[in-house]
Design goal:
heterodimer; A: 259 residues; alpha/beta; TIM Barrel; 8-stranded parallel beta sheet; two-stranded antiparallel sheet; 8 helices; 10 strands; 15% strand; globular; B: 338 residues; 13 helices; binds iron/sulfur cluster
């Protein structure tokens, strides 16, 4: 029997621990199909793409009501802008879940942890459920936790790169040291990489590029969902690391036991 | 950075296999960085008064063109039509006349635009930092300014009089824009004025400098092609479709994150093909005459529109090619400091 309780963030139960980004899909109906077929529970949408009174398609109409909508602050270059975008999300779309993205480097798109932490503090105090996108750094993680973050979203590698867990060791440290759920975001290009993140104890994984650019995004979303679940079960099963199971001999200390 | 020689070698290269390979690579980079989406924008021409004398331009102050400038009421009428079509990213343009389209005039236009558009960009004469700051606070998100050519001698030859004659003031415009806080800067060359490879190299160099020193700005580039005016005897460089395609590919391979714009000055076929290897933003259903949306006519010489398709038609093409047309790509926030 598998015993796999849902992830809980801010009182919401999340069964599918694969979170879906939406910015890169070639069509909104395709995105919607991915969400419903794979029973995605958490979706992130950039506030900069939301237009409630659009003549054309409004992206929010393509996201089912029972899905948790997490608006991101893409385009914010500092804490102040992130705060303003978050407030706009609350006013215009009634959304309280905010993925804070503060990026002041348009070349690498690396998040600015310091500004991000500041935005976390302000927005958490205003009652938002705040999930900061961050470079995996222990000090920043502590600061964000203390500032009221609901979960942490460290990057696996550069956004859109598909290079997987380049920052593995540092994410592992956050998993060990933080009491918050760790959602690995950015750079996850293959389901196997998502499984790897979950096997080491991440609480969830977010991806967009890998799914949106797949020839068949529906299958890709399902593959990620299954890989994330498999990785989770492996973690829960507490599978021993290969190589830890047995050592054939004790070349260093064996002599102590020699007759 | 890529060398001048590598650029000119590639521009001269005739190997279709190499071109195809690099186009595919550029396409993959674009998709990974920007997704399968294309942003749409439209221009509104506010005024065609110009104090400069650029040899190649039909708007230049010495030609007998009938001048026009929209009143705030006319500006609003134009904006209503454009916004009504669904466009949310607007580019406001004027000729380079501080006298006829002063900063106060631009401020008024920006404030009206704020009622209809979620992102506002300007393509006007170069300004000072404090002026950009005022416009930024009023809601300007982007500024477009082309150096036209980076070849100083050629620049001097082609720009006979007016403020534009000052090469360095123009060159430093992107920096002044960045210092003001404005988030998007579009740079470019008017291809055909000088040797393409050299101009491209210098544009890349300029862009590199900007990325290093002002990393928070979202950069994009354009490669408008010179349209030679009747009677202009100047010796220009012929720019083929292949040249333009190579400019796009080279930009993408060297600047994965930089946006690349393609306007309706290019024909539909080229625009549709270019979507697949680097273009991120296109203008659509553009009228480039002052007051043209209300009057429904296209008349101005320099900025002829070649792609006359409606927004709906372009949207259909984008969807058929697997691209999601993006109308809203920025939500204007209050830019005044707390
Ligand atoms: S190119 Fe621009 S600045 Fe030069 S004459 Fe034409 S409108 Fe004026």
């Amino acid at each position: 029997m598998q015993n796999n309780p849902p992830l809980e963030i801010a009182g919401k139960k999340i069964k599918n621990r694969f979170f879906l980004g939406t910015g890169k899909f070639g069509s909104k109906s395709e995105m919607m199909k991915c969400i419903s077929e794979s029973e995605i529970d958490v979706v992130t949408v950039a506030m900069r793409r939301v237009d409630a009174d659009a003549e054309s398609e409004n992206i929010l109409e393509f996201i089912p009501d029972d899905v948790i909508l997490m608006v991101n602050t893409s385009g914010a270059r500092n804490a102040e802008e992130a705060i303003r975008i978050a407030r706009l999300a609350r006013e215009a779309a009634g959304v309280d879940w905010i993925k804070i993205e503060v990026i002041n480097d348009s070349k690498y798109l690396l998040p600015d942890n310091r500004e991000t932490a500041e935005a976390v503090r302000v927005l958490a105090a205003e009652g938002f459920v705040v999930l900061p996108y961050m470079t995996p750094d222990l000090y920043a993680a502590r600061e964000m936790e203390e500032a009221g973050a609901a979960a942490l979203m460290p990057l696996g590698s550069l956004i859109g790169s598909g290079e997987g867990l380049q920052a593995k060791k540092f994410i592992e440290i956050l998993i060990k040291e933080s009491s918050l759920p760790i959602v690995v975001d950015a750079g996850i290009g293959r389901p196997s990489q998502a499984a790897e993140a979950m096997e080491m104890g991440a609480s969830a994984v977010l991806a967009n590029t890998a799914v949106a650019l797949a020839d068949d995004p529906g299958n890709a979303t399902m593959a990620f969902s299954l890989a994330v679940k498999a990785g989770r079960l492996a973690w829960l099963g507490n599978m021993a690391e290969p190589g830890n199971i047995a050592s054939a001999s004790s070349p260093l200390t064996g002599f102590l036991f020699e007759e | 950075m890529i060398t001048k020689k590598e650029i000119s070698d590639f521009l001269a290269d005739r190997d279709p296999a190499l071109l195809e390979k690099l186009a595919a690579r550029a396409g993959r980079i674009t998709a990974a960085q920007f997704g399968k989406v294309i942003s749409l924008y439209a221009p509104i021409y506010l005024s065609n008064y110009c104090e400069n004398n650029c040899v190649y331009c039909g708007f230049r102050s010495s030609c007998g063109l009938k001048r026009k400038k929209l009143t705030p009421k006319q500006i609003e009428s134009e904006m209503k039509i454009v916004a009504g079509s669904g466009i949310r990213n607007i580019l406001l343009l004027t000729g380079e006349s501080r006298k006829m389209s002063p900063v106060s005039y631009l401020m008024d236009a920006v404030k009206i635009a704020g009622k209809y558009f979620s992102s506002i960009s300007l393509e006007v004469y170069p300004l000072d930092t404090d002026e950009y700051l005022e416009l930024y606070k009023a809601g300007v998100d982007g500024v477009t300014v082309y150096q036209e050519t980076y070849d100083r001698n050629r620049y001097d030859e082609l720009h006979l009089s007016g403020k534009k004659k000052d090469y360095d003031y123009r060159y430093k415009t992107p920096e002044r824009v960045a210092l003001s806080g404005i988030r998007m800067i579009s740079m470019g060359i008017l291809t055909g004025l000088s040797k393409l490879g050299d101009d491209l190299y210098d544009l890349f160099d300029h862009l590199n400098f900007m990325e290093r020193n002002y990393p928070g700005v979202e950069y994009s580039v354009s490669f408008p092609r010179l349209i030679i005016e009747p009677g202009d005897e100047t010796d220009y460089h012929k720019i083929t479709d292949m040249d333009l395609v190579k400019c796009i590919i080279l930009t993408r391979l060297n600047f994965p994150r930089v946006g690349i714009n393609l306007s309706t000055r290019e024909d539909a076929s080229l625009r549709d093909h270019a979507l697949h290897f680097g273009i991120t933003r296109i203008s659509a259903a553009s009228n480039t005459s002052v007051g043209g949306y209300v009057e429904g006519v296209q008349e101005d010489p320099q900025f002829r529109v070649k792609d006359l398709r409606s927004l709906k038609e372009i949207e259909k093409v984008l969807r058929a090619k697997g691209f999601d047309p993006v109308y809203t790509d920025w939500r204007r926030i209050d830019n005044t400091p707390i």
